[in-house]
Amino acid sequence: MKFADLHLHTHFSDGTFSPEELTGHAQRLGFAALALTDHDSVEGCARMTAACGPAGIEFIPGTELTAEYNDIELHILGYFLDTQNQRLLAELTRFQSVRQDRIREMVARLNALNVPLEVETVFALANCQSPGRPHVARALVKAGLVKNLDEAFERFLKKNRPAWVPKAKMSALEGVELIHQAGGLAVMAHPGLNRTDEIIPALVDAGLDGIECFHTKHTAAMSDRYLEIASKFDLLVTGGSDCHGFSKGKPLIGNVKLPYEHVEKLKAKVESRKPGAQNPRSALPTPP
Ligand code: AMP
Ligand code: ZN
Ligand code: FE
Ligand code: FE
Fold it and tell me: Residue whose CA is closest, atom 14 of ligand 1?
């Protein structure tokens, strides 16, 4: 049976694998299709395309946006994006600069707490346009200022801890629209982690295409719950490991094996949206 992992990160955001390393792991595990979903970035997609081709793996260009709805944070996955879309690229650049400013602010707060971390150390370690809290955490560990990543988040970086800085986010409705105008499908990421089910109907009204039912941190009960929600709202079903490489123990790739039939359904929807595609409704008889 063919299967896919549609939620993966590389070192173009806060993952540790290169696109080539990630593809190598996926090939060993027998994946037929992969999507790259780096935070606020599509930069790794070109190298993923180049690596997946010879490995016989189908590649779907994507990203993971941080958004909010009624002050609730949620992550939105975009799939089948046109990675040259000018508006998408401009918005991603804007959010990358928000991320860089946030790193500066978090390091300033750490310094005010007498934690002697230099911002350049974090940027050098991150070595990407889209840095995040995991890079600050890794820099703290590397400098011997905390024992491990968990301590970095628990003591300093988790929401409402002393070095946490809120992140400016786009609205969820803007996120869905941004993905659509770049030719993509918009999918709600790991709903079981955010516990934000009450906002799903509004996102569906805004054109949400799918929901990530399968995720490393979803229990079987959560997956069942979101499969039911997908069926109720006629949403496509996705799933992925959310692998960040070797950031904490064993890489997560392989934890989620999404049956390939879901990829077929995603492709059918994206094709039906393309200009010139036949509107399936036009085949219906005209109502009296
Ligand atoms: P950011 O986008 O900068 O707010 O960072 C969010 C990322 O930090 C998530 O995608 C996770 O990969 C990671 N993260 C969040 N909480 C923790 C935690 N407690 N321990 C390790 N990583 C975490
Ligand atoms: Zn991440
Ligand atoms: Fe996420
Ligand atoms: Fe993710």
Answer: 134
